[in-house]
Write a structure and sequence with these properties.
By secondary structure, the protein is mainly α. The chain contains 20 helices and no strands. Helix content is 80%, strand content 0%. Helix 3 packs antiparallel against helix 19, helix 7 packs across helix 17 and helix 13 packs parallel to helix 18.
Length: 398
């Protein structure tokens, strides 16, 4: 539910750009809207430090519970926010502020849930247990895409632009109640090997582990936010297909991603993290450009094939990376260290990807440029997997 809240903005970036960042040039409005999208990611490392510190010092449960309201309230406020035409400059300022508060929540939410799942699972099923955290995030983003598909199929373009885009945000009010209901009875033991200074220790004696995990996640972040968030805008603005077609294709490909995720994790528990990550990094590095050529067409079936290729690769890489992220961080700083490493990587490279992709196309006129950005990210993950990380699948978690 929290990831539904966070991701739904990306699906309506085009409409939000016109409403809150008006410009004579539609590309400028879109880039500005994706800039606000990126702002929510850029503060995620701070949210990671905040909620991660709570998780390491007070407990995993408290961090998971506090993040719920931090996400739900600003989401509903975005849905109720007056546009630039009504209140002028205050509209985009408030919009960016709400996105940043959402980013603080996600910064501690996602990684704290992965730590909880890995630490609570049998050693031979750590990836398969943790993948359901990724699955939940993917399901939330899928729900956002599905709501977008429903709206664009039921409402006409004028209605979506006028008021329809607000409905998915207002539905975010369900998050607070759902999150509290799910987490009120979760109890975890205090972490073993506690530290009184998890932030200082993360940047001190454990800094190399933080750097390795951050580099490992670059390819995942870039590919995911290109294939499943920016793709909707790309199909509408570049391929010139109707909005409902873009949402339908994205929703279907994300649904299939949810099938691939547990399969990737199952393989990871059996053959190890490194083989999975090396294969996925190779596919991402050398397959991004051909797959993006499939997406850059006017034929929905061909576009779907390109998106399914990315779904398969991301499903594989998720299976290897989800448990490795937790296993590579020492126990005393596991919440804080992972939260900062993951969110710094995803914030700097994943969350900015829609902005960078739109900017690259605008500056070069080449509609395939986002694929080169994905290939670079894939190469970072591939080289990190080969040279910088150890195999962690078959050792006992300290």
């Amino acid at each position: 539910m929290e990831w539904y809240d966070f991701a739904v903005y990306g699906y309506f970036a085009g409409v939000i750009g016109h409403q809150f960042f008006p410009s004579d040039n539609p590309a400028v409005s879109l880039i500005a809207a994706f800039g606000a999208f990126a702002a929510g990611f850029l503060v995620r490392p701070l949210g990671g430090l905040l909620f991660g510190r709570i998780g390491d010092l007070v407990g995993r449960t408290r961090a998971l519970t506090l993040s719920v309201l931090t996400m739900a309230v600003p989401t509903v406020l975005i849905g109720l926010l007056p546009t630039h035409a009504a209140i002028g400059l205050a509209a985009p300022v408030l919009l960016v502020t709400f996105r940043m508060i959402q980013g603080l929540s996600v910064g501690g939410e996602y990684t704290s849930s992965l730590v909880f799942l890995v630490e609570s699972s049998p050693h031979h099923r750590r990836a398969f247990s943790a993948i359901w955290g990724v699955w939940g995030a993917g399901a939330g983003i899928l729900l956002g895409s599905g709501v977008g598909a429903l709206l664009t199929n039921v409402l006409d373009e004028t209605q979506v632009v006028s008021w329809g885009w607000r409905l998915p945000f207002i539905l975010g009010a369900l998050v607070a109640g759902t999150g509290y209901w799910l987490r009120r009875n979760i109890h975890t033991e205090k972490p073993v090997g506690e530290t009184k200074s998890p932030v200082l220790d993360s940047f001190g004696k454990h800094r190399l582990s933080i750097i390795k995990v951050a580099l490992l996640n670059v390819g995942y972040g870039v590919s995911f936010y290109t294939a499943f968030v920016y793709a909707v805008t790309y199909i509408k603005e570049i391929d010139k297909l109707p909005g409902h077609v873009a949402f339908n294709l994205n929703t279907l490909s994300m649904a299939l991603l949810l099938v691939f995720l547990p399969l990737g994790a199952w393989l990871s528990d059996r053959i190890g993290r490194k083989p999975i990550l090396i294969v996925a990094g190779t596919l991402l590095t050398f397959g991004a450009i051909p797959l993006f050529h499939l997406i850059h067409t006017t034929h929905p079936i061909t576009i779907l094939l390109g998106e399914l290729g990315f779904a398969l690769i991301i499903g594989i890489i998720s299976g290897g990376i989800v448990a490795a992220n937790v296993e590579l961080i020492p126990t005393p700083v596991r919440c804080t260290g992972l939260a900062f490493a993951y969110n710094a990587s995803i914030g700097l490279f994943g969350g900015t990807t829609p902005l960078i992709a739109a900017w690259l196309i605008s500056m070069t006129g080449n509609p395939i440029m986002p694929a080169y950005w994905i290939a670079i990210g894939g190469a970072v993950t591939l080289l990190t997997s080969i040279f910088l990380i150890r195999e962690t699948a078959f050792i006992k978690l300290d």
